Each structure stands twice: as structure tokens, then as C-alpha cells.
Amino acid sequence: INMDGTIATWTNAVNRFVDARYAQRSVSYDGYLNVIGGMTGSTARSDVQYSRLAGDGSLDVWQSDIPLST
Prior knowledge:
The chain has a 4-stranded antiparallel beta sheet, with no helix packed on it. The chain has no helices and 4 strands. It has strands at residues 25-29, 32-40, 43-52, 63-64. By secondary structure, it is mainly β.
């Protein structure tokens, strides 16, 4: 998103999300975007994936963290 609120040109990300999912929870905290749990197909996920947020809003490489206990 440009500074004036308009949408910039889409580009393909060099760094891809580790495992695509839906119904996840996401939170931005301490300079990172954290994606927690969710579903992959009919499989429930309990892991956390995170990426550092750059000053321009872009994301660094996605990484996986240890699964949460269920």
C-alpha cells in the first residue's frame, strides 16, 4: 500500500509461507508477524510460523517454530 493509500503493483514474493493454511490466528508483535495454528485441508495445525516485518511493510523469510501443545 502506497503512502497515499493507493494499492501498489503486486509482485511475487521471494520468500514463501512455509505451509498454506486457513482459519489461523495472526498477531503482529515486537516487529514480527506470527501466524498461529489454523487448518491445512482437513488437518488442524498447532505450529507457529513467523516473519520479521521490515520498515517498508515487506516480510523477511518465513520460519517455523515448535508446535503448541494441544
